[in-house]
Design goal:
Helix content: 55-70%
Length: 58
């Protein structure tokens, strides 16, 4: 049980270390969701038009 609590505490510290507040965490999640939605709709991560890449044909 002690190992589990230690692991959960460590995971929380690592996860939340990138943002200073709960508001920052909410913003990070919103930006992540927006980027994933853009990629799902065939756009770039920041919402721009995706360039047509010439992929090699085998």
């Amino acid at each position: 049980m002690k190992k589990l609590l230690t692991f959960l505490a460590l995971a929380a510290v690592v996860t939340l270390s990138s943002c200073n507040t709960a508001i920052g965490f909410g913003r990070d999640l919103r930006l992540l969701g927006t980027g994933m939605e853009n990629k799902a709709h065939g756009r770039t991560w920041d919402g721009g038009e995706q360039q047509q890449e010439s992929l090699p044909t085998y």
